[in-house]
Amino acid sequence: MKQALNTISEIKAAVDAGQKVFCSGGGYEVIKDSVGQYLIHYLGGDGRHYVGLHGMEDTKYAEVLNGKDFYAEIEPDFAILNAGSIFILTAITEAADAWVEEKVGINDETQFWGQKGIVIEHRYVDDIIAGIRESELTLEIGV
Does pTM top 0.70 for this prediction? Predict the structure, then answer.
């Protein structure tokens, strides 16, 4: 799942958080080297091509990014699959597990698909998706 990153601080924070950050359609990855520099690494060729994330500090280019269309590859909290007359909701992260326990509840009548997929009737899915988004959790929808 892609999350757009629009500023230098957003990009650096995502790298520092351990997220994979890419730009220009995925041919370049943003890394932090052993001395703390943020670099754009070209993933093709021999793998030895790097450029700074942005222009030199204390110049008019300090806030100019050396790439475009930056995004982080993030793992969504939930995946939901449209299986026709039912939907399958799968909690992926611990935050999603906690949300399911608090908001959905698991009891003897809960139907599962596989180990963690919860079967949801079509009439309830919109409210559940709205609740997930209101809780600021992420959701990947599959068909």
Answer: no
Dump pLDDT digits (tens) for 73-126.
888 999 999 988 899 999 999 999 999 989 887 777 667 777 788 888 888 899
DSSP codes joined into one string, 115-143 = TTEEEEEHHHHHHHHHHHHHTT--EEEE-
For the chain, domain boundaries: 2-73, 78-142
Q: How would you class 15 by CB atoms within 10 Å of its CB: exposed for 0-12, middle for 13-18, buried for 19 or more? A: buried
Distance from C-alpha of 24 to C-alpha of 47, rounded to nearest angstrom: 16
Say which amino acid occupies 143: V
C-beta pairs of 6-13 under 8 Å, 24+ apart in sequence: 6/70, 8/53, 8/54, 8/63, 8/65, 10/70, 11/38, 11/53, 11/65, 11/70, 12/38, 12/53
Name the phi and psi angles at 135, rounded to 5.
-85, 5
